[in-house]
Specification:
alpha/beta; Nucleotidyltransferase, domain 5; 3 domains; globular
Length: about 575
């Protein structure tokens, strides 16, 4: 065969191969898109915490609406065929969720391992099957973003002692390749198993790391304990709970009371049941009870139920006072909630509330009741002698002072770190002598003092952080006016601060490292509590057979900020269509 003939034959074979390859791609791509669409459906099911079997009815709904939605499309039969081929059976959705969970975990571990430091928040709870679950959430920097991510939702087989938590954490960190020596701080709910002096988890972790670190008792839990310690509050709550349970926990009484409220044209739909676990429950229950006090009194009279407290002046005074006072605590609690809050800002809210308590006490002493609207309304409607009113006000003023004293005795760890926490926003004014560095020595801060001197003597860098503080004030003001945008990642205050520190030159490397370490600190275990709420929704009594690993995968996808790389996962997946 001549060379020209050989060359022609080779060209023909190459051309034929390319045509076959092109045809293969045309056949392969739609099915690849089907796998990607299957991943999207599975991801949506996980995001909304729905049962894995919901894929079937999503597909059925899609098929039915497509008959009308694509009625005027010339290729409507192809569209319907493609929908029919979509694999979303329960086991398929399960496999897709497991694959996406692994993918986001890989992304998390890549960032966490490359981070120079991180802090953790831990909390333990039980699911609907009474299994003990331990949530471990990490807070770490990646670029100009501070992330809060679930490392793993672990299962504790039997006991939940400090040594059990420590053993499980060590095992999981070893499996995932996470360096425990990078831990800056640990935040817990203050349970004995976590903070016990000898065998608590925190103490055992110190022994493991052979060094000290920052440890915080969740600031929200401490605030809730302060609210529960109020004198006379429990006696008021006990009576209110009995009355509310009589009305709202019995179906007939609840319906009859609802009809009474409709007849009275009330703006409320009913009373609220008290839940001792929920942080805001007490204040909300008392406030609603006071708002519906007339309707409650009338209803109980019709039912011949005698609660003599409802006719006692002093008890009614206490009721209205605590309805106002607990709502002030609720306002503080709400400010402390949320992910991404710095320990500095959270403790700032607590310090501000302590000052407000002094104002409340003065307000009560003077009898103006500017900050106690329910109590003022009650006194206005009640024919109470001036002397009796003054006795009540003096009592409440004293209670407010005692509440302030209780708060001043708590948050010890935050008070010790207060001046140090100021460093992240005020490095141009903070004095080196005021910094608590004993728990950060492992970061290598030997040059910190020299760098601070250079920094504070430079007008450029001082101006930079003055501008930063002004910018943060504007961001927080805008967030209050438009709460819908307050959770946007780029607008979170912690990320604005982190970005500003990262923009400093390397001549301030030690200062930058110290500031980033302070930014990683968890002020509360709110992220853990929020995660457990998702857990109870996903693994509910109706879905109690959901395995712990599968529930953990669903929770991870629901709570993570990482996005599963669906196109990448679909390419690796063997192409299958629904039969």
């Amino acid at each position: 065969m001549k060379d020209e003939e050989k060359f022609e034959m080779i060209q023909r074979e190459v051309k034929q191969y390319k045509q076959q390859s092109s045809s293969f791609k045309k056949v392969f791509k739609p099915k690849n898109n089907i796998s990607a669409a299957s991943f999207q459906v599975s991801h949506t099911i996980a995001l909304y915490g729905k049962p894995l079997s919901d894929g079937d009815y999503i597909k059925e709904a899609f098929k039915r609406c497509s008959e009308m939605l694509f009625e005027d499309f010339p290729n409507k039969s192809d569209i319907r065929k493609r929908i029919d081929e979509l694999p979303v059976a329960r086991n398929t959705v399960k496999d897709r969720i497991i694959a996406m969970d692994k993918d986001v975990t890989d992304q998390l571990l890549l960032d966490l391992r490359s981070a120079g430091m991180f802090s953790i928040a831990l909390d333990e709870s039980t699911d609907v099957t009474s299994s003990s679950r331990l949530a471990v959430i990490a807070r770490f920097p990646t670029g100009n973003i501070m992330k809060e991510e679930l490392i793993k939702l672990m299962s504790l087989s039997e006991k939940t002692r400090g040594q059990d938590v420590m053993a499980e954490l060590k095992k999981v960190f070893a499996e995932l390749g996470i360096n425990m020596q990078k831990i800056v701080s640990v935040t817990t709910d203050g349970a004995p198993s976590m903070v016990g002096k000898h065998v608590g988890f925190v103490q055992l972790l110190k022994q493991e790391l052979k060094r000290s670190f920052v440890e915080f008792h969740c600031i929200i839990h401490q605030e809730a304990l302060c609210a529960k310690s109020l004198k006379y509050l429990q006696s008021v709550v006990t009576i209110v709970t009995k009355i509310v349970n009589y009305i709202a926990a019995h179906a007939l009484n609840k319906r009859q009371f609802s009809n009474l409220m409709n007849a009275c044209e009330s703006e409320f739909s009913g009373l609220l049941l008290y839940n001792n676990v929920r942080w805001l429950s007490c204040g909300n229950v008392l406030h609603r009870f006071v708002e519906l006090l007339e309707e409650v009194t009338l209803f109980l009279a019709e039912k011949n139920q005698n609660y003599h407290e409802l006719s006692e002046t002093m008890w009614l005074n206490d009721l209205h006072f605590f309805a106002d006072f607990t709502m002030h605590y609720n306002t503080l609690n709400t400010k402390l909630q949320g992910c991404g809050n710095t320990a500095l800002s959270m403790f700032g809210h607590v310090k501000a509330f302590e000052k407000k308590l002094a104002v409340f006490s003065t307000d009560l002493e003077q009898g103006k009741l500017k900050y106690f609207p329910q109590l003022l309304k009650h006194f206005t409607r009640t024919d109470l002698a001036h002397e009796q009113r003054q006795i009540a006000l003096n009592k409440y003023s004293l209670l407010t002072k005692e509440a302030k004293d209780v708060m001043s005795e708590r948050f010890v760890q935050f008070r010790e770190m207060d001046a140090t926490l100021q460093f992240i926003l005020s490095p141009h004014t903070i004095q080196f002598e005021n910094l608590v560095l004993s728990k950060f020595e492992w970061l290598g801060l030997s040059n910190l003092e020299m760098e601070m001197i250079d920094f504070q003597e430079s007008a450029i860098w001082k101006t930079k952080f003055l501008d930063l503080n002004y910018h943060i004030q504007k961001v927080e003001a805008n967030a209050e006016m438009d709460s819908s945008d307050s959770s946007a990642t780029e607008c979170r205050v912690e990320n604005i601060i982190l970005s500003e520190w990262n923009s400093l030159p390397n001549s301030f490397e030690t200062m930058k490292r110290f500031a980033v370490a302070l930014l990683t600190l968890f002020g509360s275990t709110y992220s853990c509590e929020s995660l457990f709420s998702h857990m109870n929704f996903i693994k509910s009594s109706a879905r109690n057979r959901l395995s712990s690993d599968m529930a953990a995968a669903c929770i991870k996808l629901k709570t993570t900020e990482y996005k599963p790389r669906i196109a990448r996962l679909a390419e690796k997946m063997q192409q299958q269509v629904s039969h």
